[in-house]
Amino acid sequence: MFTEDLEELVTSQQPVLVTGATGYLGGHTVSRLLDEGVTTRVTIRHEGQRENVLAALRQAGTDPAGKLEFAVASLDDDRGWSDAMQGAAKVLHLASPFPFTPPETEDELIRPARDGALRVLAAARAAGVPRVVMTSSFAAVGYTVKEDNHYSEADWTDPQTEGLPAYHKSKILAERAAWDFVREEGGIELAVINPTGIFGPVLGNRPSASAGLVKAMLTGQMPVVPVMWFGVVDVRDVADLHLRAMLHPKAAGERFLGVSGPAMSFFKMAGILREHYPAAADMLPRKELTIDEVRKVAETEPSLREAATLKGRVPIISNEKARSVLEWQPRDVVRTIVDTADSLIRLGLELPAPGGKA
Length: 358
Ligand code: NAP
Fold this sequence. Notes:
Strand order of the largest sheet: 3-2-1-4-5-7-12
Strand content: 15-25%
Number of strands: 15
Number of helices: 13
Radius of gyration: 20 Å
Order of helices and strands: HEHEHEHEHEEHEEHEEEHEEHEHHEHH
Bound molecules: NADP nicotinamide-adenine-dinucleotide phosphate
CATH class of the domain at 2-199 and 232-259: Alpha Beta
CATH topology of the domain at 2-199 and 232-259: Rossmann fold
């Protein structure tokens, strides 16, 4: 069914509008849409970002073949959204601030995430676009500790959870606002994707937060890691999940968790890298901090707050719904981690010579 619906979309030549196309997930999603032959319109914040999108596509080996359109619109501003939506068949709303370092105020993230989602939904509805697929996050699902550690689409992170980082709050509040909008206003369908940690090949020169983690491990910047278990999913599979949710009749009104399999820890990830890149063995993390050590360091180090909030527990995150409803088949997590590292090496990351130091 997915293939037939995709063919119909290609034949219609109606554009799919993608926000966040300059980002990590955006690059892969636009590349996949164009590779499938789908006319794709992307929003950029300013004209200067055209080249970023094109460079990522070149790197992915994707030829836009006259099927790529640009529109200028920012999550912080009403201007541009109405034009961007005209004639769009569907909207994939990926854009949301995802900074490496915590912001000075929570509002720096919450405002563009929440108000931006509402801008996108309102403009899509006004233009008669039937469905928006929005990228939320596992951050909006599973950061309130549950006794049984099992997480599904039925769960929501409580925004009052102690120590919850601003990014997580921004994702919860944006997703909630989107569902409220659709319930109260009607006239448009919403499907939401909640990916866990996204890894996989880097496109372009802007490293993703997750690729930054792999890079930090391979270059000896993380000699110790906090105990922290989290879900992992491949960026190419998250793009695929968006396309499936965009087309499947049963996706309307639903959330879908994106996770490839059992949870991973920083230390386990270091083990996978050690096995596949023996030359980097001396660089890779050697020690895992206990949860008591993590809590203590987190008192003065905001970047460890997330690990402290999760209390060293191993979440059991289900991908059953995406598999059964959307026939989604994510790839193996080891492949994803290795492909992340390989892409960094292709982009110039140098590993020590075998047997030698960096
Ligand atoms: P990314 O590389 O940082 O991309 C973020 C995108 O959002 C960029 O295109 C950025 O545009 C855009 N954006 C941010 N603020 C904006 C604003 N005010 N107006 C317009 N555009 C704005 O992050 P990503 O990993 O691709 O994330 C994509 C989506 O996946 C986000 O919704 C994120 O929350 C979600 N997600 C990511 C992960 C992960 O592990 N990476 C996991 C779960 C969910 P500029 O280039 O102009 O800044």
